[in-house]
Specification:
Pfam families: HHH_XRCC3_RpoA, Rad51. InterPro entries: DNA_recomb/repair_RecA-like, HHH_XRCC3_RAD51B, P-loop_NTPase, Rad51_C, RecA_ATP-bd, XRCC3-like_C. This is DNA repair protein XRCC3. The chain is α/β, with parallel strands linked by helices and 333 residues long. Helices cover 36% and strands 23% of the residues. The strands form 3 sheets. The protein has a 9-stranded mixed sheet with strand order 5-4-6-7-3-10-11-12-13, with helices on both faces. The chain is globular, with a radius of gyration of 20 Å.
Length: 333
Amino acid sequence: MDCEQLELNPRIRAALRRADLRTVQDILCSSQDLHTLGLSRSDVQLLLRAAAQAYRPQCQITALALRGEQSSLRLSTGCVVLNELLRGGLPVGRVTELSGESGAGKTQLALQFCLSVQYPVQHGGLDSGAVFISTEDSFPSRRLQQLIREQPNLRSDVPKSLIDSIEFSNNIYIEHAADLDSLQVCLTRRVPLLLARGKARLLVVDSVAALFRSEFQPSDWLERNKQLIRFSSKLHQLGREYNTPVLCVNQVTETHTHTHTHLPLSSSVSPALGLAWANQVMVRLMMHRLQGTVSQGDQSSALRRLEVVFAPHLARGDRNAAIWREGVRGVQT
């Protein structure tokens, strides 16, 4: 569909012409940050809403649809410093993306959420288990067992008797999806069954980009985006229907500019899969591996940074963190 057919004000139309964005597909698939076109935040929201409705009317842009009454429940990270950044943790019933370079600590934090969800609500959990869908690497079972053993050190806010009473390993349901068909089967059959029975209250997909990058060529961008929207629609449905936080781990792609408004000036990467995927998540977080190191007792860790890229309920910001035996913890600076 041509952009001229969208109901847009002349200012937005002129910006699109300058950027040579002529069709709805150009808008949804462009890797360019729309804020760099000289448009205000409200202009970008109007443009994305109009493009998404024209591309697929039944598709909702989650970040723009958050106007109704929202649940106040949050799934804790297990760390006070990181919880401050996220105002308590992951929002329940919504889709959150966590992207970053290899080795930044994305899977580590995802595992931490899989343990945190098993605590009672008063301790930042949801008193249930987690479904972890792995699409590329084997599930890090040894690291999970280490995190379980170290829970008393990470969660000093929780009575040790309560920690000892939770059978963490038995409440994490691991699925492997080697292709999009198996992922679809998992999301439409096995995951809803676990959620409906109350066995799980967290869904983790690690990672989103792996399958969509491997199964499609660059020339198949339209079909890829259709599949992305179908996939994200299912995630939204599961999150809303079962009041479940959904965490999608994403890879990154190199950028050729340092002017991206959603990234630090020092960053040369951006989340993979472009705007077609970015428009489907409510919260975008990024983890960066920094140059420095920090020490704690007999341990040392490369310094990390957890950054809020966008979220309707959060201010832009970041916190430094490190990865210890007990998990990911914020570093006070």
